[in-house]
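Extended Data, panel c. Modelled sequence:
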Amino acid sequence: MRKNLIEMFDDLVNTQQELLNATKANVDAIIESKMRNVYEIEKNLDTLLDLSKHFGEAVDTFIRLCDYYKTIDFESACDYLEYLKDCFENEEEYYKHLKRVKGLKNEV
């Protein structure tokens, strides 16, 4: 039974990684094409927010998309960044991620 639980957990992690990879590709396409479809952008932000609790690269991609989203709807993008902040145990870790992502200003 324990082996089945481990296999199930591994399957879950693999599925989440596949979802992250697909979402990262979506984000790249959104930014490269300068898409302005708020529904599509927010759908990807929601997915990344869910994945950010387990994958650091989801956080980086989330921040990149929020940075782009600020050019379309600044207030909503800032709201999403606040939602992300709630995923971290302390603000220092949150700001460390923000500073690491290229092009994002420190005064978010």
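Confidence is low (pLDDT under 50) at residues 104-108. This feature is highlighted in the accompanying rendering.
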